[in-house]
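User: Reviewer 2 asked us to show a designed sequence for the structure in our supplementary figure. I'm pasting the structure tokens here. Could you produce the per-position amino acids so we can include them in the response letter?
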């Protein structure tokens, strides 16, 4: 579509540049009055969309959310003349993730009320300038550079900024352009350990580094203090971020070593905020990536926004208790200059300079300064208008809603004077049941009929208690650090070892186990009789089930060697109470007795059979266009319950050897069922060569209360991806 439409898009843009942009540039600055576009050509190369992701979970039913990976390596050419200088652009590179929201969905044409666009993070931008050497001499333009243009894009297109285009007439889009944020995340940056040494003396002796952290969500970035000469720094600092969009926004943490010349990179961390939102509180040591060693200790708290005045208690530690959202709409009847209202007398000062008088007569170019506490934010500037319309949203953290105020000051960009001020006590918001004010506010120190129109929304911040039924993501984070005890082999958390008496009940070899062993030794292509009520009935069912499933998936009935790579699994059973399983576990002759310390579950069985723990159906393929491994978890059947109260199964996926918390995927939890249906898709963005070297580690787990003694893992399977034709893909039980 883009390739076909690109020439037409180019024609529209050429017209826009000449008729809209050129007059705007000329009006900006006296030096730019002669600006003319001499060449506008958008080139042959159009932007490419590398992938599209559609969200169907955790979103409203009346909207469609898409993420587009956009890549534009363009050969566009744009030249302009300013006085005697010629300058321009020859080629642009831009890539980033653009989110497109179609909402609200309607029952009549055009079926979609409006389209909202924004970048999740600042896109990467490179511009190839032409005539750049002359550019630096041009007054009024010499401050332009790539970074300024990036900031310009960020100010309009990166969250929390959005572009909303209504598709239906008379559509009110204010709430789409400025939706109430999803929540607030409070990040406690506690400490780090074993950071890499970056400082060196005379190139030989390693010194200690001076680490600091940069924390970033969207366009908001905070910097921690620097800890001098310490590879195990302790910060104990707290930062608060507004989260505007879920799912999609991530917390990025970069560690640097402060140096007089250039700061050295010491590692980074990317944390999905969806998991933090679901878990409410995560207190973990996280392994740093892109470095050889180091762990970072963070405590993350998800704060919900509540319309509840009772939650507005004052915090003794100086942390925020509420958030104020200001929708700055417009102003009316601003004075042309501040002499119009000084002391109510019009000509307070005599103006001798005629040129200055001319400047006073034109309409003001105004911007707004909004202040709560010690934080001030500035709006964009509306040029030459006594009724400016800003249409912007701002958020402030509030410590005490009962005593703090919002200070508003409208200023003219050409003079230091204020065109009007207003003070709104936040306690006024508490009188309204919705904690909202949407009105015109009279301006002080201005004309008697000067107003500013704003909507103010106050919301209390509240850390909710985590759902005791939910599986905490933080507990599952596998990390080689000082916090959790780990088994050397599997790099997994150790379960509580089963009490010795339980194990001793299990006979090392029994008639049942001998029967099972002989059954396992049979040629796996031989069909087993399901009705055979011989010594080990359950394993025989499982083997037959596997064979049937295999035949359903592969009509040509491949030899089951294809299964060997996949189904090689022994379950993890923290407490062996079910003796029905015991003989089969004990009988796998080759296993060391330690198999009862049942976290060593990566045992190979060579005939494609498994314990009677049920089956999981997976569809796995490699999507070349998206450069990603797609794993579809269809469902499970015949799971073995781990307790009398039933199980709430979910599926957890790692792409080994990567066991980082951030790269773990998991399905939703299905309540009280042994045959859950998920149909959930997960993606790992890796090259095909890398994927071929990896192993899928898939575990079915029971979501149980955190303090419960029940067995958590219901079964596990590992798939060696080097053995599979991933482009063609496979689907099987």
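Assistant: Here is a per-position design you can include in the supplement:
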């Amino acid at each position: 579509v883009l390739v076909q439409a690109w020439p037409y898009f180019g024609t529209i843009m050429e017209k826009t540049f000449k008729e809209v942009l050129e007059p705007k540039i000329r009006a900006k600055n006296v030096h730019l009055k002669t600006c003319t576009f001499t060449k506008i050509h958008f080139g042959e190369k159009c932007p490419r969309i590398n992938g599209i992701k559609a969200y169907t979970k955790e979103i409203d039913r009346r909207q469609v959310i898409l993420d587009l990976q956009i890549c534009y390596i363009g050969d566009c050419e744009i030249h302009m003349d300013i006085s005697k200088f010629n300058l321009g652009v020859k080629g642009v590179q831009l890539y980033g993730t653009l989110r497109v929201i179609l909402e609200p969905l309607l029952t009549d044409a055009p079926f979609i009320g409006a389209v909202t666009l924004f970048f999740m993070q600042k896109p990467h931008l490179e511009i190839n300038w032409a005539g750049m050497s002359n550019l630096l001499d041009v007054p009024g333009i010499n401050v332009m550079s790539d970074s300024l243009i990036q900031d310009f894009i960020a100010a309009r297109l990166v969250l929390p900024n959005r572009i909303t285009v209504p598709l239906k007439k008379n559509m009110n889009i204010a709430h789409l352009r400025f939706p109430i944020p999803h929540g607030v995340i409070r990040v406690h940056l506690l400490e780090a350990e074993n950071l890499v040494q970056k400082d060196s003396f005379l190139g030989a002796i390693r010194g200690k580094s001076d680490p600091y952290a940069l924390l970033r969500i969207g366009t908001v970035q905070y910097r921690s203090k620097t800890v001098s000469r310490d590879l195990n720094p302790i910060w104990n600092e707290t930062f608060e971020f507004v989260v505007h969009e879920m799912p999609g926004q991530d917390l990025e943490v970069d560690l640097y070593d402060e140096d007089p010349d250039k700061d050295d990179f010491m590692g980074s961390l990317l944390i999905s905020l969806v998991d933090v939102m679901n878990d409410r509180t995560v207190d973990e040591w996280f392994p740093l990536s892109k470095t050889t060693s180091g762990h970072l200790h963070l405590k993350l708290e998800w704060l919900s926004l509540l319309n509840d005045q009772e939650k507005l208690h004052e915090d003794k530690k100086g942390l925020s208790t509420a958030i104020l959202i200001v929708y700055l709409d417009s102003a009316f009847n601003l004075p042309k200059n501040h002499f119009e209202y000084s002391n109510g007398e019009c000509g307070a000062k005599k103006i001798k300079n005629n040129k200055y008088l001319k400047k006073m007569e034109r309409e003001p170019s105004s911007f707004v300064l909004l202040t709560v506490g010690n934080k001030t934010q500035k709006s964009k500037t509306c040029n030459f208008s006594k009724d400016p319309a800003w249409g912007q949203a701002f958020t402030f953290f509030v410590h005490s809603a009962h005593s703090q105020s919002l200070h508003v000051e409208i200023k003219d960009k050409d003079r230091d004077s204020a065109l009007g001020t207003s003070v709104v006590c936040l306690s006024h918001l508490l009188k309204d049941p919705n904690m909202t004010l949407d009105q015109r506010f009279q301006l002080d120190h201005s004309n008697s009929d000067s107003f500013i129109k704003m909507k103010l929304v106050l919301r209390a911040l509240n850390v909710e208690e985590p759902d005791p039924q939910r599986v905490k993501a933080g507990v599952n984070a596998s990390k080689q650090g000082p916090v959790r005890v780990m088994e050397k082999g599997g790099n997994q958390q150790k379960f509580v070892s089963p009490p010795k008496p339980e194990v001793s009940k299990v006979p090392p070899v029994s008639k049942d186990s001998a029967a099972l062993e002989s059954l396992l030794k049979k040629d796996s292509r031989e069909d087993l009789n399901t009705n055979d009520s011989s010594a080990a009935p359950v394993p025989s069912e499982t083997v037959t089930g596997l064979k049937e499933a295999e035949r359903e998936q592969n009509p040509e009935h491949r030899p089951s060697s294809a299964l060997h790579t996949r189904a090689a699994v022994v379950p993890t059973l923290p407490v062996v109470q079910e003796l029905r399983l015991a003989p089969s576990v004990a009988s796998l002759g080759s296993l060391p007795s330690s198999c009862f310390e049942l976290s060593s579950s990566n045992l190979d069985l060579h005939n494609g059979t498994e314990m009677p723990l049920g089956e999981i159906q997976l569809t796995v393929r490699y999507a070349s266009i998206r450069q990603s491994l797609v794993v579809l978890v269809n469902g499970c059947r015949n799971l073995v319950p781990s307790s009398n109260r039933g199980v709430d199964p979910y599926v957890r996926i790692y792409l080994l050897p990567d066991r980082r918390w951030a790269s773990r995927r998991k399905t939703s939890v299905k309540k009280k069922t042994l045959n859950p249906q998920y149909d959930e898709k997960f993606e790992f963005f890796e090259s095909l060569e890398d994927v071929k070297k990896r192993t899928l580690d898939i575990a079915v787990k029971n979501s149980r209360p955190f303090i419960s003694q029940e067995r958590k893992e219901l079964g596990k399977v590992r798939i060696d991806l080097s053995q599979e034709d991933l482009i063609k893909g496979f689907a099987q039980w």
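For the response letter, you might also mention the following. The chain has four domains: 1-166, 183-306, 322-341+362-463, 615-732. Residues 341-355, 475-610 have pLDDT under 50 and may be disordered.
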